[in-house]
Design brief:
The chain has one domain: ABC transporter involved in vitamin B12 uptake, BtuC. Helices cover 74% and strands 2% of the residues. Helix 1 crosses helix 10 and helix 9 packs across helix 10. The protein is globular.
Length: 302
């Protein structure tokens, strides 16, 4: 098998793992599967595109790129802004919909509501931006050999490095900060966490903000290395859940490792059984692992 599949799988796995962090946090802390999470990926990418376009309109489109990369400071500034706005959008969706259902509904009602929210957000995105694919930059980058038989472009390398930085930051947040310890406590037992003085509402707000921002980062990465489409988040949704479950619900490192496994499995499926069946191979791997360890790689029994 061509070693290039490993590079392709690593890149895809980085995007999936980054988005899966929000899925695993939402599920472990709020106790429901949020199917609108994929739309945060989409809105993060389109938000970045719109803000970068506005910056280019104000300051001129001929803005120098950074080194060998296809983007410059406008895209970086737009991406940071869009990540914050996507986190706020996730928080607003919770306040308008999920918080009310949490108070008087059940988990299945919240799951069905997230389906409706997902379709509404996707349709709204298609209404504003049309269904035509968009690109941050149409320029062609030349890939160079990083290892024998493996080639990556400068953009792809920086995306992998960005994932490593964000995952490390999340790990430090969860293990070294008061907020991270509070989030872990709420994921274990929300009622007991409230009794001992933890502000559960603050933890819920932080979960939505962080999950939305990381989903936006995954969308920006996908937009830079592939393209931007209204269905990009929907297409990533099942791999995101597969990565979160495979790594173990509630585990940030598990979500990332699960994403890498899913990404590598999908990349390996292309030369083995064809691109049309790449998702099937990933889920066969998921089923096999869960039959051996239902809690996932880093999950623990409750």
């Amino acid at each position: 098998m061509n070693p290039q599949f490993f590079a392709d799988g690593l890149l895809m796995g980085a995007m999936i793992g980054l988005g899966a962090i929000g899925v695993t946090l939402t599920y472990s802390i709020l106790r429901f599967a949020n199917f609108a999470h994929g739309e945060f990926v989409t809105w993060g990418a389109y938000g970045t595109l719109a803000i970068a376009g506005a910056i280019g309109f104000v300051f001129g489109s001929d803005i120098a790129r950074i080194g060998p990369f296809s983007f410059g400071w406008p895209l970086i500034l737009a991406g940071l802004t869009a990540a914050v706005l996507t986190g706020l959008m996730a928080l607003a969706l919770d306040r308008l919909l999920f918080a009310r259902l949490r108070a008087k509904g059940t988990a299945i009602i919240m799951v069905m509501a997230s389906f409706g929210a997902s379709m509404a957000l996707r349709s709204l995105c298609e209404f504003f931006f049309t269904s035509q694919p968009r690109y941050f930059n149409r320029g062609i980058q030349i890939a160079f050999e990083v290892l024998p038989g493996m080639r990556l472009t400068p953009d792809q390398l920086v995306m992998i490095a960005l994932t490593a930085v964000l995952v490390t930051a999340m790990h430090l947040l969860m293990t070294r900060t008061t907020l991270g310890r509070a989030m872990r406590a709420v994921s274990e037992n929300p009622a007991l966490a409230g009794v001992v003085g933890i502000d559960v509402d603050r933890v819920v707000r932080a979960t939505w903000l962080i999950g939305g921002a990381l989903a936006a980062a995954a969308g920006i990465m996908s937009g830079i290395v592939v393209q931007i489409r209204p269905f990009m988040g929907f297409d990533l949704l099942l791999p995101l859940f597969a990565a979160a479950i495979l790594g173990g619900i509630g585990s940030v490192p598990g979500a990332v490792i699960g994403g890498l496994i899913v990404g590598l499995a999908e990349a390996a499926a292309v030369p083995l059984i064809g691109a049309n069946f790449r998702a099937a191979m990933a889920f066969l791997l998921l089923i096999a692992v869960l039959l051996l360890r239902p809690t996932g790689i880093f999950g623990t029994r409750e």
